[in-house]
Amino acid sequence: MIAIYCRKSIYSDTSDSVQNQEQMCKDFIRIRNQDEPTTTYTDEGFTGANTDRPNLNRLIRDIKAEKIDTLVVYQLDRLSRSVRDFAVIFDLLEHHKVAFLSVKENIDTSSPIGKAMIYITMVFAQMERETIAQRVTDNMQGLAKKGYWTGGKPPVGYTREKIATDGKHHTTIVPADPDYVRQIYSDFLKNHYSLTSMETAYKKQGIKTRSGAFFSTAQLHKILTCPFYVEATPEVYNFFTLKGCQMADECKNWSPDHGVMVYGRTTERNKKHEICPPSEWIVCCGQHEPIIDAETWLNAQEQLKTNVFNRVSKFPPPMLKGVLRCKKCGCLMQVSRKHYGDKMVSYYYCITRSRKGTCTMSQIRTDKLDQLVIDAFKEISLDDAMIEKYLPKQTQQFESPEKIKKQIAQAEKKINNLVAALANTEPNAQKRLISALDDLDKEVYTLNEKLRKSLDSAHSVAEYEQINKQKAHAIKDIIKSLDYLSPETLNRFAKSVITECTFDGSELFLRL
């Protein structure tokens, strides 16, 4: 069978549509006089920078199952824009003796020169992608060094505004709610708050964010450490110099009439927003007006040193931390701890109820819910079949491949009988036989498609059952070692095997 793979990044890609790609691949196959059946795998809206694409993964499974003889793409970068990822896929194709054809580059891997051209083309494709990314980065750095806003959501208290400079339009930020930010800094310093005590105080006073929720320590930390608020003075210049930041201009160019602009302070890693090391920050005098005076901002940074924002918990995590969700509102449930004399008790609670007061979920002791999960694991360890109770139900049902193969054989037998009868039939009756042959031919094609889907389903079921056996085996090992495992290990294990875990106030719902 010939596989056609099409991909388009609909948000930023300007390449041909997947329909055009498919048609050009089919025309290419027709020109080569290949009359094997084709099947198309399409990923629309997925980047070529990685291989995390559903239909590419399905294609790879079919290649491993020896269902594919030839793979055709319109252009090499439709399969991958990364030399490393492409090399892995191409190695898989060679291992399973799958021929590879690219329409636009006119590459055929059946020849040595074709194999060499593939890697040369992919190197240039990756170089082009990296060059474009570097060009964008350089442009953003250039704008940041001139003090302009380079994109993203502006800090609390600011809004974006377009300004014209030397005939060009650039973006800057302008104060929209400066008193709100100044009050937060004033409260923090005046009351000698820590982040936790400030969160508690604001909650008691009913002080909320502009979105109507109660403040968290993370939100307060973000505001109190935001560099864009502060005046660009020599003292602030020295502060960032001592942190090891890259200073884009000299101190004499700084002015307290301007705020500080920082580029490269944050990044997106694994879909999480993270603060980069100060050595990667590019700091300069901005084009925007500051909100906080230098002395206030520097005092706030000094006070924060006694309240280090540390993500490492000093308490061991309960088993379902980061896994359990509120069934009423869908929010991830958090952990709170209370001291009763010398005893400390942990609870799971819904953060939506705590901050917005819009959820009616009651809190529940962590040990009670964790024990319910352990009981479920013990049940599975005693009987492998019990894992089915906690697995998502498979909804798609297909006829058995054997039954479909019999239907195909019967249809082909009818075709052979009609073909044999056709030679001895009067011309007037031949039209009816030809029409019947055409109907049977369509039926065989439909049955072959049904057979392909049925075989795919059977392969998926076998893979599904194998994964479930592995999960059951892992659960047995955990139960055997339960008394020796640390809370951190149990928490990591829960995150790896539990796909859904919700609590409705009285009952726990679990899916593996």
Structure description:
By secondary structure, the protein is α/β, with parallel strands linked by helices. The protein folds into 4 domains: 2-140, Resolvase, N-terminal catalytic domain (Rossmann fold), CATH 3.40.50; 158-304, Hect, E3 ligase catalytic domain fold, CATH 3.90.1750; 325-366, no CATH class; 371-511, no CATH class. 46% of the residues lie in helices and 17% in strands. It is built from 15 helices and 18 strands. The protein has helices at 18-31, 54-64, 76-79, 83-95, 112-145, 178-190, 195-205, 217-224, 234-242, 294-304, 351-355, 366-382, 401-422, 427-480, 487-497; strands at residues 2-8, 38-44, 70-73, 99-102, 107-108, 158-165, 168-175, 246-247, 260-263, 266-269, 272-275, 282-285, 325-326, 333-340, 343-350, 364-365, 500-503, 508-511. The strands form 6 sheets. It has a 5-stranded mixed sheet with strand order 2-1-3-4-5, sandwiched between helices. A 3-stranded mixed sheet has the order 8-12-9, with helices on both faces. A 3-stranded mixed sheet has the order 13-17-18, covered by helices on one side. Helix 6 packs across helix 10. It is extended.
Structural descriptors:
512 residues, alpha/beta, Rossmann fold, Hect, E3 ligase catalytic domain fold, three-stranded mixed beta sheet, 15 helices, 46% helix
